[in-house]
Amino acid sequence: MTPGSEPVEERLAEEVVEGLDLQPEEEPLPSMSELLADQLGGVRGLIESSLPVLAFVVLNVVLGNAVVGLEKQTALTWAIIGAVLSALGIGAYRLARKQPVRHAVNGLLGIAVGAFLAWRTGRAQDFYLPGILLTFGQAAVLLISVMVRKPIIGYAWGILANKGRHDWFANPRLFRTFQWLTLVWVASLGVRAGIQYYLWALGEANALGVVRILISWPIYAATFAFTAWAIHRVTSAPEKALT
Q1: Number of structural domains in the chain
Q2: Helix (H/G/I), strand (E/B), else coil: 98
């Protein structure tokens, strides 16, 4: 065997390994839109999160003076029970089918807090107050993150779609994109919470439920979709355009 040559068996073994492609491949990360859809819970998640609110609105209207004519407090009590039971039912159904219950649990906690508050005050509109305050709080946190130049949308993208790296700070165009996208979220959350707070102040409990189902979620979903599109537009641009 001449110096530098390899035995025939070793060369054959290397060729077999290369042919079998036994090197572990790194699975591609899901797209930002897929990740955002997962956080939102998908269409099913939106429907399931709306069912307890729908149960509350329907029972409060049907059992109240509008139809059955029960006493206001009695109708409110049954509406609260219906909302809580529907949230529990969704969680039980998911458990029985061995499906993820993260969204169901989150929804149940929100429904439970709102139901307790409405029961204590005797005012149907207070069922929605925790959600309104939470939305205002989220908008405030996002706004502060922009003011200190640490946009939360950028951190979310780094964790979800950039393998935990936050090198976007060194990319001027990405940084600007995450700054104004975070402001878009501030505006979206502010509009949702503002409309609901106005109806809460007027004591329009049933209108609050309708807005929560028919207006609030579409705004939320549209903001997610716009965020995914804007990020994809920037990250898919040529390298020179990202400065």
Answers
A1: 1
A2: coil
